[in-house]
Amino acid sequence: MGRFCFCFPKCRVAKIMAWLQIVLGGLVILVSLASLYKLYNAGFFLHNEDICRHLYTGRTESFSEGFDIRALKDRVDEVLDQMSELQQSLERSVKQMDKAHQDLGKTTMSKLDHKRFLEQQVIKPLYSAHIALRQIRFPNLDPNSSTISIKEPPLINAFITEEIRKYITPKENRIGKMNIYGTKSVHNTIGHSCALMKKELEEYMDYDIGSYCKDDWNLAQKLMVGGCDPLPRRRCLTRASKVYNKPFPINDSLWRTPEDGNVRWNNYQCRNFACLSSKNPKRGYSKCTGCFDMEKEKLKWVVNSSLPVDFLIRDVLAIKPGQLRIGLDFGIGTGSFAARMREQNVTIVSTSLNLGAPFSETIALRGLIPLYVTLNQRLPFFDNTMDLIHTTGLIDGWMDMLLLDFILFDWDRILRPGGLLWIDRFFCLRKDLDDYMYMLLQFRYKKHRWAVVPKSESEVYLSALMEKPPRAI
């Protein structure tokens, strides 16, 4: 009996220890399984390069979303290759000098040759590598957030050519103004901006093949203005107005307001052309005052004005009699300039966007040609083909200088030798006038007419009529 009592406490302690070992062993197994599961998800067993980012940096998927790590790696590798080539080139030059050490002191290398050697073999490669490193764009850190916010344009690190990077980088409007598109910047496009508007683009391409498209032209225009331009083709049927009537004959349509039933009004504030009158403060658009009042439009470019910046069509045509046949009206409006030129047997294509009103439909219903393009896009004309380019109401002082430079060079590309560039009522701040004048005069066009008048105390109007030189090769 005494031996049994003496053994009982020992047996009870042993059982407790055994159970503790079992429990601790189970916990170890659970912890091990959890660790293995985490490593598996992080890609450890599949050799995923993101494992360090997941396990050791604590960063989330937002780091890589929208930021091209592979492009960044390629850029750094390219810079390292350039530096390596430079080093090897310099080492070869030194070895050649060592081999010819006897004649080294006798060589009469001119300062010009020495200068060329430094420029081509040293300075140029170093500059290229320096620029490539300086152009690497990293995500901007938000100090109030644990994640990294991506504010750089997509694919920016995929290109090393500086001109491409300048082209695709969004051009902010001057002095923070909102442009006529309702945006704070303009995106020159090579398709890269679609990555910034993935949700809108997926919505645009979500349709039943062969059925009617949704009435979503405003979504399409939003994508275009945002830089996702040109848009992909779609395999659905475009909707038209339910009460569409045949347009007026060409002799009547030029200066006659189209019928209301020929326009889809769903996405406008107004539901008819009468509502678009300049007397209506809530018409839905702000640019091109009086564009839908045909009686006022008839007076433009044909009636003498008190301002010297208002050139007349007959004076412009007299500069090149019989030579102006086709041209481009790059601006915003309902096609009145093209209508006046058509009366003079000149065919004008008018750029248009439906910025609060059916500008594109109105131009077409008047029997004219609307070209539905944004400022982002390279003009779809071949080199040296246009006799005349006219612009009014679109290119103004809100525009970024670099953006304007790209646009002007595109105009110069399509304008034929001897063609005319007509800048009509361009306005800007008085202090910026010299900068814009330089932008226009850099092409060395012949000036036929040039006028600057005050618009307000701080702004001025500029109108110019210039001729492109031959530039024969």
Give the spatial strand order of the biggest sheet.
7-6-5-8-9-11-10
Beta-strand residue fraction: 5-15%
What is the H/E string? HHHHHEEHEEHHHHHEHEHEEHEHEE
Give the helix tally.
15
Derived from helix and strand composition plus strand pairing, the structural class reads alpha/beta
Biggest sheet descriptor: 7 strands, mixed
Q: Average pLDDT, to the nearest integer?
A: 81
Helix content: 25-40%
Q: Any idea what the radius of gyration is?
A: 34 Å
What does this structure look like?
This protein has 473 residues and is an alpha/beta fold. It has three domains: 43-96 and 114-169, no CATH class; 171-239, no CATH class; 250-467, Rossmann fold. The chain has 15 helices and eleven strands. The protein has helices at residues 2-42, 51-57, 69-99, 101-104, 111-134, 162-168, 198-204, 217-225, 250-253, 294-297, 313-319, 336-342, 359-365, 401-414, 433-441; strands at residues 140-141, 148-149, 171-172, 185-186, 326-331, 347-352, 369-372, 386-392, 415-429, 446-454, 459-467. It has a seven-stranded mixed sheet with strand order 7-6-5-8-9-11-10. A two-stranded antiparallel ribbon has the order 1-2. β6 (347-352), α13 and β7 (369-372) form a beta-alpha-beta unit. It starts with a helix and ends in a 6-residue tail after the last strand.
